[in-house]
Amino acid sequence: MRTVFYNATIVNPGEVLTGCTVIVEKGKFVSIRQSAAPAADRDSFLLDAGKWYLFPALINIHDHFRGSWLPRCGNGPYQNVYEWLAELHAKPSAFAPARERDRISMRNLYWLGTYKNLFSGVTTAVDHYLRVDPALYSDLPIRLITNFGREGVVRTYHEPELFPSWGEGLLKECKDAQESGRPFIIHVEEGVDQETGTELRRLNKLGVLGPNTILVHGIGFDEEDMQIVARNRCHMVWCPATHEFLYGRTSNIPRWLELGINTALGTDSSLTGGLNLLDEMRTARRFHGQVFGKSLPLDELFKMVTVNPARALNLEGHLGRIAEGHTADLLILERTQNGSPLETLVAAEPRDIVLLLHEGRPRYGDELLAWLFEAAAESHGSAPVVVGGRAKRVIGRPMELLEKVWEEIARRYIPAFLPLDDAAHP
User: Fold this and answer.
1) Cα 162 versus chain centre, distance
2) Which tens digit of pLDDT belongs to each residue from 111-151?
3) Fewer CB under 10 Å: which end of the chain, C or N?
4) Distance between CA 17 and CA 61 in Å, rounded?
């Protein structure tokens, strides 16, 4: 199926192109030209994009799909993540949502996590968790990144009986990832105390830091830590909603950017983090201003959900930009009269998404474009839904999913990241 967008405004990191014709075919952007509207072609679907902005679809570099449940759990502020984990396991009543989550099948949790991301313009997400049966997520209508070396927390290395490895051990996971050119991902310095403040230097002594290393959080980094990260060309993941909720403080993002550290934004688990990636972008902008007394530039924030995570995942030649030869992952929003393209993006809610493509195939969008979904003939099918009072179409059957979840938890409940008016008003 060939889809042609004409009269389009393309919004890439560092550039805005107007009057463009964008051709999508076989899952790729095959042609991008500043040209007049093309002639009608019976083999193509032509869409006038004059009232829209075309963005690369967003990348959520840090999520835990098993934690796709709300409300958030915690009684912080905590000194470190280990305090939170201890409460998670020791205080069932205080962490009731997590206990309820445990009653939901993994398959249903992964579908919930998929919708959490799709409804916020995300087509690529990293599921940072222990390895599970690939059949669990092989047919999800999203690009779920699972092929990477992994570890949960640094304590695993010296207390494996209390913190079992998420893989085959920190050193082996890192070595195998380095040899195969895959990323190695680990949480580090998720806390503000003396213990977590030494974690980065421990990893450095173990020799696990390098250009393929993706470090999550880094709240307790001092100047020496940040210099080590920059020198080793590691990538950093910032999860401001989790930082604010659990610890009341965040990482030194201005210094990371000064040092040229490649920084990407992640939602983290729904049990502690942001509602979705659009909401996380707003939290990042607000929290950065509160903590550092200056605005986070929108172009930096945009890079944190597009080209920066693509670079960290070694996918920068495929994702993160609208460019010829890149995978056709596309997020389309309605143009606004009184806002720049990036202001429009940061203000966007799920109801504002006109169309979301993954590998050129529709995943979510306006019901007026239902014919695109029908032409794609997906095995999952698609369903009409109402989001924020607007008629939409989404791949799969989210209401059927919710009904299965309600059976599992023995009550009717709609997590806020699943913004379906249909569920709220049956």
Assistant:
1) 29
2) 999 999 999 999 999 999 999 999 988 899 999 999 999 99
3) C
4) 26
For the chain, the maximum distance between any two Cα atoms, rounded to a whole number of angstroms, is 66
Report the C-alpha gap between 49 and 20 in whole angstroms. 9
For 256-268, the pLDDT digits (tens) are 999 999 999 999 9
Domains and CATH numbers, the chain: 2-57+320-381 (2.30.40.10), 59-312 (3.20.20.140)
Contact (Cβ atoms closer than 8 angstroms) between residue 125 and residue 60: yes
**Closest to 203 in 3D by CA, of 193, 216, 192:** 216
Smallest CA-to-CA distance from 147 within 102, 177, 190, 168 is with: 177
* Residue 343 to residue 347: CA distance in whole angstroms: 6
Cα separation, 328 vs 359, in Å, equals 5
Which of 191, 146, 162, 120 is CA-nearest to residue 356? Answer: 120
pTM of the model: 0.97
What ranges in 143-198 are assigned the alpha helix state H?
Answer: 170-180
Q: Which residues pair with 22 in a beta bridge?
A: 5, 32
Output the DSSP codes for 302-321.
HHTTTHHHHHHTT-TTTSSS
Rounded to whole angstroms, how far apart are CA atoms 168 and 156?
A: 11
**Residue 38: how many other CB atoms lie within 10 Å:** 14
Tell me the per-residue pLDDT of 21-73, one tens digit each, with 9 for 90 and over: 999 999 999 999 988 777 777 788 999 999 999 999 999 999 999 999 999 99
- Given a contact cutoff of 8 angstroms between Cβ atoms, the answer to whether 403 and 368 are in contact is no
